[in-house]
Amino acid sequence: MNDDVTLPDSLLTFLPCRTPAAWVSEALQHERLLLIDHAQCEKKAASTAMNLMFRYVDHPDLLTSMSQLAREELLHFEQVVKLMRQRNIDYEHIGASRYAEGLRQHMRREEPGRLIDLLIIGAFIEARSCERFAALIPHLDHELARFYRALVKSEGRHFEDYLALAEQYAAAPIEQRVQFFAECERQLIESEDQEFRFHSGVPVHA
């Protein structure tokens, strides 16, 4: 068993809840699904950053931040796929979890609200990913624990980057929207979920 990872207080305060123990237990029984969906999450994170760059070309700070983030996420994708190959796990398509869409369905449609909500949602996805890495690490084999520990260190700042951009481009304080999405996120994490994924909720059979 590996040592716990200490997450920044700012990240733990930002998230509305901790990952349920039932999800951790389920993850340990489904390493194949965990790694495949983790790879997909890294690829989707890079895609999200690129989409923001293409849509908001007149936001120079966003372009710089998202360009850096996309490169880092694609590197992590490559690292996950390499780890999977070493474990004889084939990378294949699996359906997405309800998590990201469950947050995005509440997005405002008009600008600048749409951009602000996208950035806040990105912050929650990044923060939750780090919190889940940390929740898993004490229970993983040495190789996977070491990899996830490195991801916590490198990705721990991403949620703050998203929040900083949201605050920069918002016409008004964002606290109310952050709290709104925090409650949405809590419900997705703490409610029962039909299928296991990296961001899924409580397994229905737990």
TrEMBL record:
Gene3D superfamilies: 1.20.1260.10. This is tRNA-(Ms[2]io[6]A)-hydroxylase. It comes from the Bacteria. GO terms for biological process: tRNA modification. Coiled coil: none annotated. InterPro entries: Ferritin-like, Ferritin-like_SF, tRNA-Hydrxlase_MiaE. GO terms for molecular function: tRNA 2-(methylsulfanyl)-N(6)-isopentenyladenosine(37) hydroxylase activity. Transmembrane segments: none annotated. It comes from Kushneria sinocarnis.
